[in-house]
């Protein structure tokens, strides 16, 4: 036990200061993609066809990328004309509306806080029941790691709870397989109102690599109403944390406090 205490003393304070300070993430992180339409006037067909989930497409002569389908594999960055799509290390990806995840070169409309009575009831603390609706455990692992000392989800008043009866909402991972559809519906019904639904990862948003499979229902929106979309495959823990804090309005309040100070 003494060795444990000495090691903790040696390591010092390990919890991230986010959102008061930007996290130090590796440059190789594939975060928010940037589209340069000028570099994709022609020769994009091969790159579009290379996308395993059809996240890329052309509309009205412009390249568009659906973050809700994107696996962040980087294949488009390699096959499209140089610079047409470039992945940045920006971890901020969450959105409140599904259509906001479709990029055509514009700035991503990041998630805003809950409104009105929902914000009054759920803005200070949030208890979530996590539902793995057929996931591969990658998104589940990155949700779980938020409870560790580095992220310390509980300091924001956010907790993962065991029962939907004790929850303010559900956090869904996985593409919602046929054998998990009823479980998801029952979990949602068991959460008292008002409640929120958060879809984490490409599978939970759109079905991910299983889009169109007869045993998959195409993600959480096909079964329950979704209030927050957090794309990725899997999303970085900071991406998930950023989305949750934006939903609760905590990032805006903290930044406003910094400006006042």
Question: What would a concise description of this structure say?
Answer:
This protein is α/β, with parallel strands linked by helices and 261 residues long.
Would you mind describing this structure in some detail?
With 261 residues, the chain is an alpha/beta fold. It folds into 2 domains: 33-89, 2-Layer Sandwich (Alpha-Beta Plaits); 116-260, Rossmann fold (3-Layer(aba) Sandwich), CATH 3.40.50.12280. Helix content is 29%, strand content 15%. The protein contains 9 helices and 10 strands. It starts with a helix and ends with a helix. The model is unreliable at 253-261 (pLDDT under 50).
Keywords:
9 helices; single chain; five-stranded parallel β-sheet; 261 residues; disordered C terminus; 29% helix; alpha/beta; Rossmann fold; Alpha-Beta Plaits; three-stranded antiparallel β-sheet
Percent of residues in β-strands:
15-25%
Average pLDDT for all residues: 92
Say how many strands there are.
Answer: 10
What is the general shape?
globular
- Level-1 CATH class name of the largest domain: Alpha Beta
How many angstroms separate the termini?
42 Å
Question: What order do the helices and strands come in, and which of them pair?
Answer:
Blueprint (H helix, E strand, L loop, with lengths): L1 H10 L21 E3 L9 H6 L5 E4 L2 E5 L8 H5 L5 E3 L14 E2 L12 H7 L3 E7 L5 H7 L13 E3 L8 E5 L4 H13 L5 E5 L1 H5 L21 E3 L6 H12 L1 H11 L1
Parallel strand pairs: 6-7, 6-8, 8-9, 9-10
Antiparallel strand pairs: 1-4, 2-3, 3-5
């Amino acid at each position: 036990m003494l060795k444990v205490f000495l090691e903790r003393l040696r390591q010092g304070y390990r919890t991230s200061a986010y959102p008061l300070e930007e996290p130090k993430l590796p440059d190789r992180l594939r975060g928010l993609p940037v589209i340069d339409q000028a570099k994709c006037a022609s020769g994009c067909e091969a790159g579009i066809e290379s996308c395993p989930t059809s996240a890329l497409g052309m509309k009205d002569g412009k390249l568009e990328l659906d973050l809700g389908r994107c696996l962040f594999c980087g294949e488009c960055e390699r096959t499209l004309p140089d610079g047409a799509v470039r992945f940045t290390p920006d971890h901020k990806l969450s959105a409140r509306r599904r259509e906001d995840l479709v990029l055509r070169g514009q700035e991503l409309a990041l998630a805003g806080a809950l409104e009105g009575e929902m914000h009054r009831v759920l803005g200070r603390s949030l208890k979530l029941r996590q539902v793995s609706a057929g996931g591969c455990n990658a998104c589940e692992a990155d949700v779980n790691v938020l409870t560790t000392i580095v992220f310390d989800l509980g300091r924001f008043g956010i907790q993962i709870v065991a029962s939907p009866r004790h929850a303010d909402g559900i956090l869904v991972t996985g593409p919602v397989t046929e054998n998990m559809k009823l479980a998801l519906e029952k979990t949602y019904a068991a959460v008292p109102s008002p409640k929120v639904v958060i879809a984490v990862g490409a599978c939970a948003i759109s079905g991910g690599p299983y889009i169109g499979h007869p045993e998959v229902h195409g993600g959480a929106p096909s079964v329950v109403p979704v209030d927050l979309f957090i794309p990725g495959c899997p999303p970085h823990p900071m991406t998930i944390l950023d989305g949750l804090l934006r939903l609760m309005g905590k990032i805006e309040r903290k930044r406003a406090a910094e400006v006042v100070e």
